[in-house]
Automatic annotation (TrEMBL):
It comes from the Eukaryota. The lineage of its organism: Eukaryota, Metazoa, Chordata, Craniata, Vertebrata. Gene3D superfamilies: Ribonuclease Inhibitor. The keyword Repeat applies. This is LRC34 protein. Pfam families: LRR_6. Signal peptide: none annotated.
Amino acid sequence: MSVPPDLHLHYVQACQELGQPQNPFLAHVLQEADKSDKITCTEGMTLKIAGNNHPVPVQRVTDDDLGVLASVLRHAAFVTGLDLGFNVLTDAGAKTLARFLQENNSLQYLNLRFNDIGTSGAELIAGALHRNESLVHMKMTGNKIGNQGGMFFASMLQINSTLEKLDLGDCELGLKCLIAIAIALTQNKSLRAINLNRPLLYSQEEETTVHMAQMLKNNSSLVELHLSKHEMKNFGVEQLCEALHENSSLRYLDLSCNKITCDGAQFLRELLIHNQTLEILDLNANRIEDAGAVYLSQALSLHNRTLRALSVVSCNISGKGLTALSHAVRSNVVFSHIYVWGNKFDKGACKAFSELIEMGHLKPNCTDVAPYKVDGEVQVAQLSHGLQQHYYWAPRHRVVPEGAANASLDIAADSE
């Protein structure tokens, strides 16, 4: 490998040439990068220039700053990842990024979460990915690209054969682009994980869920699918479960924050009885209640030996359902992670989970409750563990054991 360039020196020179004032935060990141051992490693390095979660306020990256940075990175092949989340990039910055993606053949990871990129910026970036053959992981989370912007990414998925992970959560996607993405994924053979959380849907017919289910019948490469906040009801769950009887690739299914009840949990029970692939199921913030918890525990206790993690946080479950789930953990040696906080713990449920942990059936970092005693009575407290606990932000200094706060990533390496 050739001698790597001095990133900070090149940045200072580029600012002088372009007449652009230096961004102190960006300059600091490049100075620290110059000191990194990874600069000379074949594995490459990621520049973390995210504008959030700093102990002091930072000057966030603008479109003009990005233009200078792109010129610095043009010959820095050792930079394989770029985290520009939580900055103030707009469609003008997206134009710079699109040009950079067309010219660059080393960048594998690009994080643009929660900037101000709109529909025209999405068109430029998606268009650049028609030809880019290096990018593997892309995060557009929180940019208001809308339905039309989502359509550009759906078209890209019909052409691009390199991208493996795409996050379009909180992007205000609409009905038409979700259907278009589902159709594209029936043919796409490279994408392994996609996040489509919180679209803007105005129909109660669940057309998008029906198309996603049809896609799952034909797609054999998708490993991770996030459909949180889709207004999904029991009919939609039934469609997905029927499709997953025929699917042998999906390992992680996120159905959190929907309108699934105990009837929907019945379909999930039948799925868990027959499916031999699914490892992670997120039902956080649904309303499956005790009956739904009992249905799931029946499948996990007697039949399923594949599922490793289940989240039923805030699902209106009381003591009966929680105790049933504890029995499933006790009897199923594969079922190792369960998240239950936000439900109605009675004395029996508190005792059941306390015994699970004391007897070693459930490791403390594999659940979100911790037992303690008050006047001889067992109670439970909340732990900061869960599926995608640090999806929107991550602590600068780790306060929980490795993997405990993101068990999904720990179990399914494909989603890292």
